[in-house]
Amino acid sequence: QVQLVESGGGLVQPGGSLRLSCAASGSIVSIYSMGWYRQAPGKQRELVAAITSGGRTNYVDSVKGRFTISRDNAKNTVYLQMNSLKPEDTAAYYCNADVMTYYRYTTWGQGTQVTVSS
Predict the structure, then answer these.
(1) pLDDT score at 24
(2) What is the dihedral of CA 27, 33, 34, 35, to 10 degrees?
């Protein structure tokens, strides 16, 4: 089994920055794409950003130019640098990874709360 552990969430004022981290551990043969999703109260979970093993990225339009996803393949870790945060970015953020162990599957972290408020 592969475990994803997120960290870095918290309370920040509008215009501030946070950096989320997600480390994968376990019987990992390979990690394909990794991503960050978020879910605000009463809303569906949405993809925020994703990155392939080769470094190709994609973002939801609402965060383009403000958020940057990156990964360290040697550490099996993905990051989300969030700048110019807005109240509408408030949500639980979940890490997601497409992994190969004895078989290929998608796994999720437990989530970390990001609250943007003055």
Answers:
(1) 97
(2) -150
